[in-house]
Amino acid sequence: MIELLPSHIPALARWFPGGVPGIAALPEHVLTTGSGHWWADRAVDPRAVAVSSGDHVLLRGEPGVLAPDALVRFAGSYIEAPARFLPVLGGGFQRLDPWERMVYVHQAPALAARPASGVTVRRLTPQDASAVVALGPGAAWIHKTWGGPEQLAASGLGWGAFHRSRLLSLACTYVLGSRYEDVAALADPGHRRQHLALACVTALCRDIAARGRTPSWTCSRDNRPSRLLAWSAGFRLTREYVHYASGPARRPGFSSTAEAA
User: Fold this and answer.
1) How far apart are CA 78 and CA 82, in angstroms?
2) Torsions phi, psi of 130, nearest 5?
3) Which stretches does DSSP call E strand in 14-146?
4) Quick check: 68 and 248 in contact, CB under 8 A?
5) Helix, strand, coil proportions of the chain in percent (round to 5)?
6) What is the pLDDT of residue 191?
7) What is the dihedral of CA 189, 194, 197, 200, to 10 degrees?
8) Helices 196-210 and 224-232, axial angle in degrees (round to 10)
9) What is residue 1's three-state secondary structure?
10) Which of 86, 106, 105, 104 is nearest to 96 (CA)?
11) Which of 43, 178, 213, 257 has fewest C-beta within 10 Å?
12) In this structure, what is the dihedral angle of CA atoms 132, 134, 138, 140, given to the nearest 10 degrees?
């Protein structure tokens, strides 16, 4: 697949529905923030398209037009695609693991969160980028859909629990859609079970509602802590789906870097 230039992107919006919750809003996120990429089998009248941001890929269209090595650039990604793409996905990667996913929408009041004395929950500012970095490499996933910690901190769409200048917990808009904002959260391992993530998520949800949108939440069925946090914050399950974690490419030597003119 080739990467499309920005001038080709709006016409491809018809491939993906708008105003949907969860990672399905990824195309809107990429169009709005510019953080991500659009791909197609060809520049004119494409038959298969993909949108990627962070570790996530949405794939649509006709799988029969793709060669087995067409998707190798998505090795190490989480790919959501219709079942008809499974043969070409299986042919492109050494491993393809299905993950059951759950999509929640904010529908109920959150449980009360009372951070300890000395902890302040506030919106992130551009000056907080170094505090986000200090969370460590294990937290890097939360800002990948923004292109890095600087972009997330400057977005105005993150909330953190701070003790002095140290960031103890973070919640942010992970995927920015036109109707929904998909929320992600984490807490420093040494400060879990202190309701800090809940306090950050609650503040973020109020902020999202003030913007006229609805918070959503996406997590793995096996991620019980995330499911519990979502429930405590007022999210309720609306649908389930499967995405696929791709392993190494079967043909790692293949590369296509051409852009559409």
Assistant:
1) 13
2) -65, -30
3) 37-40, 48-53, 56-61, 78-80, 96-106, 119-123
4) no
5) 35, 30, 35
6) 62
7) -130
8) 50
9) coil
10) 86
11) 257
12) 30
175 contacts 30 by C-beta, under 8 angstroms: no
Q: Which residue has the tokens 């140290």?
A: 166
Pairing of strands 235-246, 78-80: antiparallel
Cβ distance 104 to 146 under 8 Å? no
Selection from 177, 249, 182, 210 nearest residue 28 by Cα: 177
Token look-up 């269209």 returns 61
For residues 110 and 217, the answer to whether their CB atoms sit within 8 Å is no
Alpha-carbon gap, residue 66 to 90, rounded angstroms: 12
Judged on CB neighbours under 10 Å (0-12, 13-18, 19+), 32 is middle
Which pLDDT belongs to residue 251? 58
Q: What is the DSSP letter of 253?
A: T
Residue spans of the chain under pLDDT 50: 254-261
Measure the CA dihedral 104/108/112/113, to 10°.
30
Torsion of CA 161, 159, 136, 115, to 10 degrees: 20
Residue 198: both structure tokens together: 């809940």
Tokens 């293949």 correspond to what residue?
Answer: 254
- For residue 97 the two structure tokens come to 């693991």
Which position has the token pair 């990627």? 52
Residue 12, number of CB atoms within 10 A of its CB: 19
Token representation of residue 118: 């000395």
